[in-house]
Amino acid sequence: MLNNFLGKRYSHKRFDYQPRYYDPSKDEKIRARMRVNSSTRRGRGGNIFVYILVLCGILWILVTLS
């Protein structure tokens, strides 16, 4: 009786999404490509250490010559 007097109480709809065009093989290709890109990105960090070593070598040569 109280609901009729106060009005209708609304409830939220639950999330119910059905993808129309899902291709599991395409999803696996994307994941494989992401793994390749992430592994190559990790390999580039070694160049910083090479630059630091070269810079230290140049500074050591400059200090020993002066």
Structure characterization notes:
The protein has 66 residues and is mainly alpha-helical. The chain has a domain at 21-66. The protein is 68% helix and 0% strand. It has helices spanning 2-6, 24-43, 46-65. The radius of gyration is 31 Å and the shape is elongated. The termini are far apart.
| pLDDT averaged over residues | 78
Number of strands: 0
> If you compute it from the alpha carbons, what radius of gyration comes out, rounded to the nearest whole angstrom?
31 Å
Task: Give the N-to-C terminal Cα separation.
Answer: 97 Å
Largest beta-sheet details: none
Order of helices and strands: HHH
Question: How helix-rich are the residues, as a percent range?
Answer: 55-70%
> By helix and strand content, what is the structural category?
mainly alpha
The global form is elongated
Put simply, the count of helices is 3
Task: Kindly estimate the percentage of residues that lie in beta strands according to DSSP.
Answer: under 5%
Indicate the low-confidence ranges by residue numbers.
none
